[in-house]
Write a structure and sequence with these properties.
By secondary structure, the protein is mainly alpha-helical. Helices cover 74% and strands 5% of the residues.
């Protein structure tokens, strides 16, 4: 695909949107990649970073290698994701602490709209598609229902490497975010603090793990999308439905503990309706505002989709 500077700036903007989603436990950058129309190109580009193209580097030079891996596209996307994670990590953390119902309601609407969009990509419906959606939903629900591990202040580098491999796979799956996986593995706060504190050794270890995981997993996804496109997309749609369990705005904490950062971490929670939330916690469920935020999140997806479709139409002219 031929692109100019403006096109690559738009790719970076999509990366910024992906990075913002990945920072939030429960929302995936893969969802944004899907609705912005770059998901399959991203998977194919990542898949192209392989031994064959490494040989191209030594045989034909850097320019040929860069073209073979769609390098400018990947670089533009990574720059956008990096800018977003570094600049928005603290802001999103603050918003989740101060306005949890509003923020989770917004992301609930966002994921519902994204699921509808992803489901529309299925070309032919049959029992296999329905079964794939059910399996995807069940797996995501079980993952989101798991209790998070205790946060650690001095994890082993090998564990950070493994966290990078696992989290990055979730980041490119629509539905479950890499940050949520880090939360389950007890490394969410630590990785955010390492990034904000520029702890280069930990950042590099996590990054190497992420790169290896990304290249490996992208090959699997690429094969699945080529061979079983509709079934794979249906599974991803189910994954997104199951992830709604995580972003439901009204939760009652049944069990919690205080971590090394003096923060209260929920271990076991149950989703409740607004009235039940008020009766159990004594807090205002802010139902009307929550509904408005969910509607806003829902509309944002379709506005973004329209904008991205318009850009793609201009690119094809």
């Amino acid at each position: 695909m031929s692109r100019n500077i403006k096109d690559y700036l738009i790719v970076s903007f999509k990366g910024i949107a992906m990075g913002a989603a990945d920072v939030v436990p429960g929302v995936s950058g893969g969802t944004i990649a899907f609705i912005s129309g770059i998901y399959e190109e991203l998977i194919e580009s990542l898949k192209s970073i392989n031994l064959h193209n490494v040989k191209v580097l030594f045989k034909d030079g850097l320019k040929a290698f860069w073209k073979s891996i769609n390098g400018t596209f990947l670089l533009s996307l990574v720059v956008g994701i990096g800018i977003s994670i570094i600049s928005l990590a603290k802001l999103l953390g603050f918003l989740l602490d101060e306005f949890p119902i509003f923020i989770w309601s917004f992301f609930f609407g966002l994921i519902v709209a994204s699921t509808i969009y992803v489901a529309f990509q299925i070309k032919k419906w049959n029992y296999k598609i329905i079964l794939s959606i059910i399996i995807g939903t069940a797996i995501a629900y079980i993952i989101t229902a798991l209790a998070p591990a205790s946060e650690s202040t001095n994890p082993a580098y090998l564990y950070i490497f493994f966290c990078g491999m696992v989290a990055i796979c979730a980041m490119i799956l629509p539905g479950i975010s890499g940050s949520f996986i880090l939360l389950l593995m007890g490394q969410y706060k630590f990785i955010l603090s390492a990034i904000s504190g520029i702890k280069l050794a930990y950042i590099a270890t996590f990054g190497i793990g992420a790169v290896i995981g990304l290249i490996s997993f992208s090959n699997i996804l690429s094969w699945l999308l080529r061979k079983f496109h509709d079934i794979t997309v249906a599974f991803l749609a189910g994954f997104m439905i199951g992830s709604l369990n995580k972003v439901w705005p009204w939760k009652h904490t049944l069990l919690s503990h205080t971590n090394q950062f003096a923060e209260i971490i929920p271990i076991k929670q149950e989703n409740v309706f607004p009235q039940g939330f008020y009766e159990l916690t004594g807090k205002d469920p802010q139902t009307l505002y929550a509904i408005l935020m969910a509607i806003t999140g829902f509309l944002v997806i379709f506005l973004l989709q329209s904008a991205f479709n318009r850009v793609q139409s201009e690119e094809s002219i």
